[in-house]
Design goal:
Layout (H helix, E strand, L loop, with lengths): L2 H6 L3 H11 L14 E2 L8 E8 L3 H12 L4 E5 L15 E2 L5 H5 L6 H12 L5 H9 L1 H10 L21 E2 L9 H4 L6 E2 L8 H15 L3 E4 L1 E8 L5 E8 L2 E13 L8 H7 L1 H4 L13 H8 L4 E2 L4 E4 L12 E4 L12 H11 L4 E5 L13 E6 L2 H7 L6 H13 L22 E5 L8 E4 L2 E2 L6 E3 L5 E7 L17 H19 L3
Helix pairs in contact: 3-9, 3-16, 5-6
Length: about 500
Amino acid sequence: MTRSSRQHRTTRRDFLRTLGGLGGAAALAGAADAAPLGTREVRHWDDKTDLLVLGSGAAGIAAALEGRQQGLDVLVVEKFRVPGGTSSLSGGVCYLGGGTPLQKALRFEDSIEAMHAYLIAAGGVHAPREKIDAYCEGSLEQFDWLVAQGVVYARRYSDEKELSHEPASLYYCGSERVHPFNEIARPAPRGHVPAAENQTGGRALMEALLASASRQGVRLRTGVSARRLIVESDGRVVGAAVEEGGQVRYLRARRGVVLATGGFVHNPGMLQLHAPELAACRPHWGRAGDLGDGIRMGLAVGGNVLRMNQGFAVLPLYPPEHVLKGIVVNATGQRFVNEDVYYGEIGHEVVYHQGGRAFLIVDADSDYPAPDYRLVVAAQADTIAALERAIAIPEGALQQTVDYYNRHAAEGRDPLWHKDRAFLAPLQRAPFKAYDLSVENAFIAVHTLGGLQTDLDARVIGAWGEPIPGLYAAGRATAGIPTAPYRSSGTSIGDCIFFGRRAARHAARHAT
């Protein structure tokens, strides 16, 4: 056998065996400081458990709870002193449907088929169909599971397009009622939010899950930073090296390790490398621990990644909702989206497809009632022609756009983008304003969606298309159900919980 043929026949197991022997030795770009350790480099284990979970957000705690319910000893380690992850900072929305008890109690009809059709359409060309299939089929059970953990939902519906500041637990959390999705699937409100005031549903969700974890005997250690995975010579992941109190400790996992460490929005190097469009926006939303640690550790043992350029870019024009009677135009004065879509889609279009530059054009009737922290006024004028000149749009372009829009809005129609009649009104009463929607000046909250590739059991998939034994991942350390443009709140937390639980169930069935 020639040298070249021997090299051609090198397997993933050979590759990982080499990594284990060399301690990763810069074998993977960007992952050198997360290089794995071989078991022969570990002289003693400081602790042993069945399931080791790295991270204490919704994905990690869901995995821990399911692990305990499967009879496993579970240890969760969290970098910060306060557990909860980015999930605790969120609105706490979980995207559920198919006729949940809450939907039925509030007299909304829904079906698994309608939920599935919407998520497939909203996911676009990147929609992970097999994961969406499984998620929709498990939606009703997931609602029951959340209630069983102590999550409280109020029998109260909100018709606002945004999370209510009142403790309402059901609302339309995406673009279900917006063209073209309202023609693809029967709309239903699927945003399930724990009963909480002032949009603190994420805190309420994590308080309930953490309390349940404590009752069920999950071991949780805070102030512990995961650094490197530990692998056997055949590439099986059997533990992790962590830092606690300035000391390196070695944790053995008999059934598996779950990476639930969040995304990488606070890692400037990774963000600039993989998602430079997001890097230019502010704020970068998430807990400070969203540094991509789990993704890099997964890469270092041969894991594959998907959609690393993707993220959500929320440009919240509303509330108040009446501003959606204005129009959003690009630098050449053309509309490029129906303004009543979920605000994650407007942000995506501006950031990814319009060079990061756009304007919201309003008149006196569709303007904000007072200065708003989210947007700055680029220009104000008594005529559209003067406004056009003030924001340097090509001569006549904005005037033509507004004339076309006004003519049809007066008839209650939007033949170009099919905005709902509730948000149609001619722009005709001065003063006219252009709000700056550019990435430099607008409030555009961003978070990453790309990460490790996983299968339906949340096993991390390697570059050769095979699961890496003993390694699982869930939440924003993975490329899960949410894709860009992000069209529905709750698909991220829903994905976290669903696949965190599946990771634990698979680990419980497969002994090392």
